[in-house]
What we know:
Elements: H1 4-18, E1 28-29, E2 35-38, E3 41-45, H2 58-71, H3 79-83, H4 86-99, E4 103-107, H5 110-121, E5 127-131, H6 136-144, E6 148-152, H7 157-166, E7 172-177, H8 189-198, E8 202-206, H9 221-225, E9 232-237, E10 247-251, H10 253-262, H11 264-267, H12 274-289, H13 291-307, E11 314-315, E12 322-328, H14 330-342, E13 345-346, E14 349-350, E15 360-365, H15 372-386, H16 391-396
Parallel strand pairs: 3-13, 5-6, 5-7, 7-8, 8-9
Antiparallel strand pairs: 1-2, 2-3, 4-10, 9-10, 11-12, 12-15, 14-15
Amino acid sequence: MKLEAQTDLRRRLEQLEGDGLMRRRRVVQGARGAWLNVDGRRVLSFCSNDYLGLASHPDLVAAAQRSLAESGVGAGASALISGHDAQHERLERRLAEHVGAPRALCFSTGYMANLGIVAAMAGRGDTVFSDALNHASLVDAARLSRAEVEVYPHADLETLEARLARCASAVKLVASDTVFSMDGDLAPVRGLVALCERHDAWLLLDDAHGFGVLGHGGRGALPHFGVRSPRVIYMATLGKAAGVFGAFAAGEADVVEWLIQRARSYVFTTASPPALAAALLESVRLIERDEWRRARLRDHVARLRAGLRGLPWTLAPSETPIQPLIVGDNRIAVELMDALLEQGLWVPAIRPPTVPAGTARLRISLSAAHEAEDVDRLVEALRALAARRSPRAALAR
């Protein structure tokens, strides 16, 4: 006899399917790069966050292998017990140097970093100001912190300033992505820093999609915008442009020390494998050295945008490797994704609740691992689909 709760769960799953919102995993095998073996088939990928093409770089692989031979696989304990390896210590020092901060602290994931940072910096009686298009990790972190949460319209500095001015909380924390992951646009970082300095607020910048890509030497959003401030808590992930795994927070020495003491997602989790830290040390070296990777990315962005002009779908304004093609309808987005996959091109369809209702899209992610011919192939395929009478009629044939 089925439980009523099980029947309800099945009904809700069927509703997701009917609304075109069901997500399915695909099995990827082998090294990561522009080309992937997916479900036993070789496809050209435009869905990876490996922006600099470092995920399978031989120098990173060799560093990880050396560390595995020396230190084994696991860290064995949380960092505050015995899990803080010499490789972790070297990596934190190197990351702080790289982004120009006094100290840095490594977390297991960007999600865990944001959860830990927000809850450590703000709690009951405090106020967190969150951009309306922030990543889910920042949204959840604000909710779980038990602080008052004020969501301000996307990138709206005027509204944010008015709310900061009337806020009487002892602690005010503004949280924002730097590169918004579904639209690829940039936050008004200079304005955010100025507002936080004017209104005595902390500023948490999530540079998950900017680290390694923005700024000279891939140093991220702050040098890209030419700003520095002791009020900034800088967070970046290490599984995107850096090609490995993890995340870090950087800022003033006392801020980082406070996070070590009070960020629960750092204190109460097993430390990452030392081999990952060893690989990341190599990654930072390549990020700084290989300016050509960012130059190639910029060329790919310009090539794609020029090639997709005039399509019936809107290419959102973005100067970053994230290039969203707004389709609107959930089912059409999925149909376009499937049609491209039939041609050996993997571009994900992004639908609500990840993006607002009515803004389903193909999220095109470019990488320095792509060749110009790869970008041209995607452009030609999308133009061919657009040339039909309508997306739905064409794809239904």
